[in-house]
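[retry 2/3] GTPase Era: previous attempt timed out, resubmitting with same input.
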Amino acid sequence: MNTSPMEQPTPKEHRSGVVAVIGPPNAGKSTLLNRYLEQKIAIVTPLPQTTRNRILGIVTGTDYQMIMLDTPGLHKAREMMNQEMVRIAMDTLTEADTVLFLVDAQDLHTLAGNPKKAEKRFAEYKDYFSKISCPAILALNKVDLLAKEQLLPMMERFTSLHPFHAAVPVSALEGDGTDILLQTLVEHLPTGPQYYPDDVPTDATERFIVAELIREKIFLRTRQEIPYSTAVLIDSFKEHPAGGPVVIHATILVERGSQKGIIIGKQGKMLGEIRKAAIKEIEKLLCCKVQLKLWIKVKKKWTGNEQILRELGMQAGYAGSL
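[retry 2/3] GTPase Era: success.
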């Protein structure tokens, strides 16, 4: 049956834009990005300050394309590297069409028993909010670990600090509320074209993601100051012309000789475990066999070395892919 133009359904406007995902360390920003991308782009560990660089993820739907900027956690920074991490996070606000402020609801609930500490934390948040000049959405994460009646006072407190356009409880790990949050974010994007092809999930290079995956395994297997004193540089990344394994050479930087010994482990056991776990994830990423060669180099006070931070993409003008 023919239909007149008046009866034709009106196509939805295509929306596209940048969403800056900011918030305190270990709030679940990278977990949320990976969920929306349906693949692992950003590394995740239980330790705070795992993310050091801005990571761009591209979430594409039938009528939208959301460019998400996963950022390092906001914290009071003293060392040069940590200061650069906070700068990277705050710089994304100048690029954003919408800001997603993601917080750990369980952490906030714990703070309720320490009013003085809670007031200090909210004062820090208010300072961050003062830098936001575009629509902002609040997401309370890890709500699967709390009772629903515990969330309302938190939402009320946040809305008293900043005029959020919406507040959405979610569990980035379990997926609860993430569809509602996605819809809310898309609704606050401007109309615009699709900037990236459907099958492009990130602008990060394979070298960058591989370095991050190796660093993740160090975070997961070492303790105390070791994870924060390490960095990974990819020295070479060679594909075999006949379809053989990709051969990757990488250097793990540490600040002290004792840290080198810990990462190597007794009879090389720790380094072997790191390499084995990294290979498994890298092969999944590259869809081919991988040979991974790891070296450890002691570089004293590298976290305050501008040249090394630049190599890691953490100096002004270099935030992003290696």
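[retry 2/3] GTPase Era: Residues 269-286 form the longest helix (18 residues).
[retry 2/3] clearing retry counter.
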